[in-house]
Amino acid sequence: GIKPLTPAGLTEIRATYGGLEIGLAVFFLYCTVSAPAITLGLGALMTVFGGFAAGRVVGMVTSGSADALQLKILAVEVVGAIIAAVLLYAASRGVPGVMAEAEASVLSAQ
């Protein structure tokens, strides 16, 4: 696992692995309020998962840390990015049902 070497290191881990996730969760909850916000959220989700996957690949290659856990997490990140990209593409092309389902769930929650 990751071990902080100093109190500042512990703060950095808390900010990165706690604060970032909380901030993203709040943002993605906001993105459920309307169809345009859902599209924004899908683009952000694709970018976030893609960025995590790219960073993980670079880390595994440069440090030789491609163990089973890292590969499983990478698979989740890649699949998440692909799903978000497919949904975003479908929404942009007006594929029937993609945004209609999202809009219906948003309207029923209001």
Report what the structure shows.
The N and C termini lie far apart (43 Å). Helix 2 runs antiparallel to helix 3. The chain is built from four helices and no strands. The model has no long low-confidence stretch (mean pLDDT 87). The longest helix has 29 residues, at 35-63. It is mainly α.
**Could you name the ranges where pLDDT drops below 50 across 5 or more consecutive residues?**
none
Q: Pairing-aware structural class of the strands and helices?
A: mainly alpha
Radius of gyration: 17 Å
Major sheet details: none
Q: Averaged pLDDT, please? A: 87
What is the β-strand count? 0
Subunit arrangement of the protein:
single chain
Question: With helices defined by DSSP (H or I, 4 residues minimum), what is the helix count?
Answer: 4
Shape call: flat
Strand content: under 5%
The amount of helix comes to over 70%
Q: Return the string of H and E elements.
A: HHHH
How would you sum up this structure in a few lines?
The protein is 82% helix and 0% strand. The chain has 110 residues and is mostly helical.
Task: Please give the structural blueprint.
Blueprint: H1 7-30, H2 35-63, H3 68-92, H4 98-109
Helix pairs in contact: 2-3
Descriptive key words:
single chain; mainly alpha
